[in-house]
Amino acid sequence: MSSPQLDPNAEADAAGVPIRGIQDHALIGNLRTAALVSIDGSIESMCIPYFDSPSVFARIIDANKGGHFSITPTWPFKPKQSYAPNSNILVTKFLSDDGVAMITDLLVPRGANRTGSQSRSFLPWLIRKVESIRGTVPFRMECAPAFNYCRDKHETSLVDDDTITSECAHTNKGLFTTPALSLDLRYLTWTNDGCINPPNLELKVEELKGRDLLGPAVTSDFELEEGQVVVFVFREVGDFSYANAEHRRVANPNPERAQTLGVPLDKLLEATSRLRPKDNPNMTKALLNALMRDTHLYWQGWIGKSKYKGRWREAVHRSALVLKMLVFEETGAIVAAPTFSLPEHLSGQRNWDYRFTWVRDTSFTLYALIRLGFTEEANNYMDFILARLKDRNSDGSLQIVYTIHGGKDLEELELTHLDGHKGSKPVRIGNGAADHLQLDIYGELMDCIYLAQKYSKPLSWDSWVAIRQVVDYVCTQLETPDLSIWEVRGQKKNFLYSKVMLWVAVDRGLRLADKRCLPCPNRMKWLDARDRIYEQIMEKGWNDERKFFSQSYEARETLDSAVLIMPLVFFMSAADPRFVSTLEHILKTPERGGLTANNSVYRYNTKNSDDGVGGEEGAFSLCTLWCVEAMTRAGVYDRPYLDRAQNMFMDFLGYGNHVELYSEEISRGGEGLGNTPQAFSHVTLISAAFNLDRALGGGGSAV
Fold first, then answer.
1. Residue 10 lies inside a defined structural domain of this protein
2. pLDDT on residue 6
3. CATH number, position 176
4. Cβ-contact 131, 223 below 8 angstroms
5. Would you place residue 1 in the very low, low, confident or very high pLDDT band (cuts 50, 70, 90)?
6. By the 8 A CB rule, do 164 and 189 touch?
7. How far apart are the first and last CA of the chain?
8. Which DSSP letter does residue 337 get?
């Protein structure tokens, strides 16, 4: 694996290759899985076949053991990386005085079939197109998987490739096999210049020096002249079986067979290709070009349905495209992030697995999708959430987080054999928070259902019966302490955020009953619960001496930016003196007792609040954007807040990486931290942009 000229201060692995920061990566995806691609052209995180499957490439977690798929020039270069316009196809350019090269990376989604051909199966391939734009560019390709989180040994071999046609000079492919999973690496070459021949490549099986991999890699050293192209295709090997030997022979004709039949070989290949397994077609230039074209059109067609026309259209649409990549198409679930165990502070221990779907994210995600006009995704997500209601516990309670398949088993494990991103241990998979009591989720759930009724499809009777049981359960939990939104690993408390969201849960239940004229046998009980929890919050959650809403009833001296949610869920007006005073406290710097530094907002002061985890963390993207929304709503009544909201939002946009991806957190130096890209960060960006744009246009804050 080669690299650009290395900054003498940059960190490198045992092979001398730079270890890129979290922010130095872009994402590609196909609504099934996703991959992080570094600015060097290396795939450093990918799970196959699904988001939550064991990793195959995880160099971002362990630079020596993790596995990677790199395609990089061997001379010094300067990289430039961007997405194709209105698309999730990634383009990485390598610039040098000696030449310019380009890699186009994509994962093929199911919808990438412009013709609607029934003969083309879903081909969830990773496609990497490499070409020289100017000059002759030397490349080094290394495909070095590390199966099952770098725990399983694999065998590597070069075998005959039966998908290659006579238009190719080579006949082999790389094959990686384990008892649980087999993957292959194929390639095709051509030229865009009729005056030169296609490039020559030779695959090799090689043990990489300076790596602790559990099996050999497939490598290739090659040169591309201007106009020459090579396309690598990486995929899972399925059961590509034929009925018998004769079926295989007829489906794979050769030049001699074509001559015997007196039919041009290309025509014969086209005809017999229909006899091959649909998920193992002949890999031709025409097929690869069609997949790349249709993938581009798929993304462009999808984002073209957006209804957002506001000031920050480019940022909002990029966030929408990222959010779409995080959708698991098979169930409608949305993964919180496609990565695991990326640290919230370098060398710290706040490293969690986010490849699941949280009930907490529901209302915010649904709101963003509905505001942009993506009702299909909103409905599918709503169906996933309602299906979880059917699987609720007997008392009406729900688990806080589920697998993207709807499962409940998220056992948390520590992978002690991995070093972590830049030494950040432990590396965790699974998520122990699944068993936490976090009562705030019922507020987000009910707000989600209420929004769906307001803007999407109507509620069924069976769903309403389930919802009534959930609200009845909530009414029994008003006095119960929990671990709340931040999923603390310490003592349960009466967190204010959870109390506010319990109020939301009951309030939305009452609103649903009233607006849909639905029977509500426990209406008076719900009304009493809603009013009681409101009074309790205003009495026990308010620090009258310091004039702010506290983190919890117990920690009355602790400030927590989660309370910024109050006006966003219509618990209270943003102009209420109590909320304005709390907002002013949060906007102070940490040195002055606040939570805002460099126009970014922290969750709480980790030095003063024992959350049972320890260590430091960065400012939270979510909290920063909630602060933008809170000031936007306050600014309707007091203009300076609106101006400050706009300034904070513009500053936040500057913390996106080079392709506008946003991590969970922002370091003091302005770099991304935590799992990336985080759905919650992009969802709240869309919401903040929508409401800020509306307020600046004189429309007030959105409801």
1. no
2. 44
3. 2.70.98
4. no
5. low
6. no
7. 52
8. -
pLDDT of residue 703: 46
In this structure, which amino acid lies at residue 682? H
Question: Within this chain, do residues 270 and 337 fall inside the same structural domain, yes or no?
Answer: no
Cα(649)–Cα(494) distance, rounded to whole angstroms? 31
Q: Which letter does DSSP use for residue 2 in this model?
A: -
Whether the Cβ atoms of residue 350 and residue 617 lie closer than 8 Å to each other: yes
Of the CA atoms within 13 Å of residue 266, those in its CB half-sphere come to 5
Q: What sign has the CA pseudo-torsion 567, 572, 574, 577? A: negative
State the Cα angle at 665 between 661 and 667, rounded to 5°: 105
307 within a domain of the structure (yes/no): no
Domain that holds residue 256: 244-274
Amino acid at 317: H
Q: Which amino acid is at 102?
A: M
Confidence of residue 117 (pLDDT cuts 50, 70, 90): low
Cβ contacts of residue 604 below 8 Å, gap of 6+?
A: 486, 551, 558, 559, 560, 561, 595, 611
Residue closest to 472 by CA, chosen among 499, 507, 506? 506
The neighbour count for residue 375, using CB atoms within 10 Å, is 16
Residue in 486, 494, 493, 637 with CA at minimum distance from that of residue 572 = 637
In 567-606, DSSP assigns E strands to 596-597, 600-601
Same domain for 481 and 561, yes or no, is: yes
| Total tally of structural domains belonging to the chain | 3
286 and 421, same domain (yes or no)? no
* Per-residue DSSP letter, 136: -
Residues 296 and 429 in one domain: no
User: Rounded to an integer, what distance in angstroms lies between the CA atom of residue 344 and that of residue 342?
Assistant: 7
Structure tokens that stand for 142 in this block? 């290394």
| More confidently predicted of 78 and 241 | 78
Residues 171 and 250 in one domain: no
Pairing label, strands 217-224, 99-107:
unpaired
Tokens 């390598």 label which residue?
A: 94
Q: Is residue 3 part of a domain?
A: no
Whether residues 258 and 139 fall in one domain: no
In this structure, is residue 133 part of a structural domain?
Answer: yes
Residue the block writes with tokens 């196909």: 30
- Which residue matches tokens 């649903």? 512
Q: Which residues contact 487 (CB under 8 A, 6 or more apart)?
A: 433, 436, 438
The pLDDT-based confidence of 634 (bands split at 50, 70, 90) is very high
Closest CA to 199 of 139, 252, 128: 139
Q: Which helix (H) or strand (E) holds 83?
A: strand 78-83
Name every residue whose Cβ is closer than 8 Å to that of residue 699 and which is 6 or more positions away in sequence: none
Q: Coil, strand or helix: which one is 103?
A: strand
Strands (E), 454-515: none
**pLDDT for residue 3 is more than 60:** no
Angle at CA of residue 183, ends 177 and 185, nearest 5°: 120
